[in-house]
Amino acid sequence: MVNRKMSGLLLGTFLILALPACAPVISKELISRADKGLTFKEVKEDPESYRGRFVVWGGVIISSKNVKEGTVIEILQTSMDRQYKPIHKDQSEGRFLALYDGYLDVAVYASGREVTVAGEIKGKRTLPLGEMEYTYPLIAVKEISLWPKEEKQRYYYDPYYPYPWWWYHPYWGPWW
């Protein structure tokens, strides 16, 4: 009886702690305001005609800088999963600018970091990109979420793995 109560308590505690891990990083209010039928490609073709509409986009930061109006982040757009985490980093439909009304540390919001942005389309900005002019859709950020850096796991191969020739291992060798 005690084991069942303890198991139920542990399971309940685990579920309460695990549920927020599945929640999206953007608030439900902004997700509900976002126009889910509007694609990045449509907006990129004519950003001015979508002015005032809300979107949730994700991608990889290319650059960020602090200016008088706030922090401007140049982002390479990518698709997102259910939690609005950027995925398929090698597939993109273009770039966009996210304007945050305030200060963000550009050392933290650095090149290569993954980010999810929810905000209002404010039109477009044309800036030089290499030797050409590039038209960026401009988003006024309402919420921004920086994803943690993913650490790559390292796997080590033990050259003295004992099975099936355990007697050749240097610590268990035939000299015992």
Describe the fold and architecture.
This protein is globular. The protein has 3 helices and 5 strands, in the order H-H-H-E-E-E-E-E. The protein is of the alpha+beta class and 176 residues long. The mean pLDDT is 83. A hairpin with a 2-residue loop joins strand 4 and strand 5. It starts with a helix and ends in a 30-residue tail after the last strand. The chain has a 5-stranded mixed beta barrel with strand order 1-2-3-5-4.
Short recap of the structure:
With about 180 residues, the protein is α+β, with helices and mostly antiparallel strands. It is built from three helices and five strands. It has a five-stranded mixed barrel with strand order 1-2-3-5-4.
Could you outline the blueprint of secondary structure elements for this entry?
Layout: H1 2-18, H2 28-33, H3 40-45, E1 54-67, E2 70-78, E3 95-100, E4 114-129, E5 132-146
Parallel strand pairs: 3-5
Antiparallel strand pairs: 1-2, 1-4, 2-3, 4-5
Portion in helices: 10-25%
Summed up, the helix count is 3
- Low-pLDDT sequence parts: none
The string of secondary-structure elements, in order, is HHHEEEEE
Q: Which structural category fits the helices and strands?
A: alpha+beta
Report the span from N to C terminus: 52 Å
The Cα radius of gyration reads 24 Å
Placed side by side, the strands forming the largest sheet appear as 1-2-3-5-4
β-strand amount: 25-35%
For the secondary structure, the number of strands is 5
Task: Let me know the average pLDDT.
Answer: 83
Shape: globular
Largest sheet: 5 strands, mixed, barrel
